[in-house]
Amino acid sequence: PSEVQLLPEIFLGAFLLTQLSAEILLQNGANVNAQNDAKNTPLHIACAFGVLELRSCLMGWGGKQSKNEH
Fold first, then answer.
1. Inter-axis angle of helices 52-60 and 19-27, nearest 10
2. Model's pTM, two decimal places?
3. pLDDT tens digits, one per residue of 51-64
4. What is each CA distance from 20 to 16, 37, 48, 69, in whole angstroms?
C-alpha cells in the first residue's frame, strides 16, 4: 500500500486557492507558516500559483515565503 502524506490543514486553503478557506482555517488556529516535506509554506504555494488575494491574506497573518525565514 502507498503511504498517504498528511499535510497541515492550512495547506488545504493554499491548494484550494481560496482566500475564504484560508481565512476560516487561520481564524481557527491553523499555522500560517506550516511546512510540507519540501519545506514549502502555504505562502510559497500561493505565490507559485500566482494567487495574489491568497498571498495577501497569508502575508497579513504573518506568512513567510522563504524556507530561510523560519
1. 20
2. 0.68
3. 888 889 999 999 98
4. 10, 25, 19, 25
